[in-house]
Amino acid sequence: MKPNPGGQLAPHNIVGRDKLVAQMWTTLRGRSIYMNDLRRVGKTMILDKMQANPPSGWLAIKRDLEGCHTAAEFATQAYRDSEELLSKTALGLRRMRELLGVLKGAEIAGILKLPDGTAAPWKDVLRRTFSDLEEQAAAADNRIVFLWDEVPFLVDNVRRREGAATAMEILDMLRSLSQECRRIRFVLTGSVGLHHVLTGLRSEGYGNSPLNQMERVAPGPLAPEDAESLALELLRGAGFADDESKACAKTVADAVGNVAFYIHKLISRLPKGQPFDPPLIEAVLAREIAHPDNDWDFAHYRNRLRLYYETDERLVLAILDAIAATDAPVPFEAIRRQLASQTLFEDKEHFRNLLKLLGQDHYVSRDPSGCYTFRFPLIRRWWRLDRGL
Questions:
Q1: Which residues of 141-155 are buried (b: 16+ CB within 10 A; e: fewer)?
Q2: Which of 175, 291, 293, 294 is the most buried (most CB within 10 A)?
Q3: What averages of pLDDT result for each successive group of 10 residues across the chain (389 residues)?
Q4: What is the CATH number of domain 299-387?
Q5: Which fold has domain 17-217?
């Protein structure tokens, strides 16, 4: 296998996720799934693997929803994908044909139009589409799963374009459909936690819990043995093959915290035509992290804080600095005392809430003793360098 960081991978080249994917298919027989983790950890690759090889009796529809900005665009996309799926099985969407009429309406600028030229009501489109899917799945004894990527972006896009009320209605509709349709499931993913979007909506009166019946999944990095196996295959594919390959594969996997994307990235940057060994790998990684214009997307973890923590950005930075500055996990009280000495920050409950949010955003992890550390060592390493700690 050749390194291909951020590129499309054949399903058989998405390694180390077979057990997780099998568990997710088992879960989907009973309920839908919300999968959230940091960017680059491999959520989309997991969806690709699920779409490519669904179990017998399952039909899978995958779509990135980040580009949808209105409820009508979202409903139209769901209808379009459903129609394409059923066209492959010689089935159809009876209720949607009734809505669109004999002329079947039209699709203009990504929105369904009725024969009289008016926009098809988005709620009606979704309900009819899913009722048709449920009916057809029962007739064929199938199950259908929608693999929807970047759902928080969809909801936030709608909030910004059409207002909080419509965004709330989308969430309520998803919750309703997941309860009403026994043969249809969802796998919803997001790099941005939906809890941030919900916080904004709750400030405007939203009180429901749209995810409370979904299984929560955070894929995390690969298992060490899978990461080392991937690194070894990529080293061989890149032309690095000698007696130290296994030791170098372990060095690569350990250095980037067993994250597949970073394994691809680091090996793609190793210099060709010269001997390689663990010290060289470490030197290349150190150079890449220190480069002011690197393309590893590290700055994302800093830049998004202003957007999602707003007035708390300064406090969140101080919390992350305190956790990153030491090699050992940091107790709650040690972080709080350090913040109090620097910022006169004494509100314990607000501090606890910020730590909880940082955990939900996968910046930090808490061990059984209540001590905190960065979840991914590579991000911590970049953070310390970028922040001058």
A1: ebbbbbbbbbbbbbb
A2: 175
A3: 88 92 96 90 93 95 93 92 76 59 50 70 90 90 94 91 92 90 93 77 79 89 96 91 84 95 94 85 95 88 87 91 92 87 74 90 92 94 94
A4: 1.10.10.10
A5: Rossmann fold (3.40.50)
